[in-house]
Write a structure and sequence with these properties.
alpha+beta, Ribosomal Protein S5, domain 2, 4-stranded mixed beta sheet, globular
Length: 195
């Protein structure tokens, strides 16, 4: 079966279907109805080398919050499922990603304990139709549902688009490293014997 998963979530607010393959080539197919968010999810898949398909339909007439958060929930659940018992993975990953004047650092631990430290201030509230506060909501939902620890820290940046895109790309590169199978790792990379 490989390290892949499909998650479907239907609520009164959204219907989300996510498919991913951890051992892919970064192929993406994303449709959420929120163009900037689609752009970020495309970057997440491409730079993590995780094949990612997202079809999200939400109550965008209200706003994009439910769509973005529920997509994060589903991607997180799919990551957790595809990782299985986590045997043989590198577990930790980190990246420093620049985008023009912006620089964001990311660190990931596939710890089994979902948590987020997010220090990514942006100078404006809206990019296109995307509420910039939703970037944090997405990563928080992903981390909690995947059971991973995520740190995202902005080092520099003036342009909100550049800052958030650098954050998604840094997260992608850190995930790529953390989920990768390491032939030198025997079993689960933890003194506890479980993640």
């Amino acid at each position: 079966m490989g390290r892949s998963a499909r998650i479907e979530r239907t609520t009164n607010e959204t219907t989300v279907v996510v498919e991913l393959d951890l051992d892919g080539s970064g192929t993406t197919s994303v449709a959420t109805g929120v163009p900037f968010f689609d752009h970020m999810l495309d970057a997440l898949g491409r730079h993590s080398l995780i094949d990612l398909s997202v079809d999200a339909r939400g109550d965008l007439a209200v706003d994009a919050h439910h769509t973005v958060e529920d997509t994060g929930i589903c991607i997180g659940q799919a990551l957790a499922s595809a990782l299985g018992d986590r045997a043989g993975i590198r577990r930790f990953g980190s990246a420093a990603v620049p985008l023009d004047e912006a620089l964001v650092l990311a660190a990931v631990d596939i710890s089994g304990r979902g948590s987020l430290t997010y220090e990514v201030p942006v100078p404006i509230e809206i990019i296109g139709t995307f509420d910039t506060t939703l970037a944090r909501e997405f990563v928080a939902a992903l981390a909690a549902n995947a059971g991973i620890t995520v740190h995202l820290h902005e080092v520099a940046g003036d342009n909100a688009h550049h800052i958030i895109e650098a954050a998604f790309k840094a997260l992608a590169r850190a995930l790529r490293e953390a989920v990768e199978l390491d032939p030198r790792v025997t079993g689960v990379p933890s003194t506890k014997g479980v993640l």
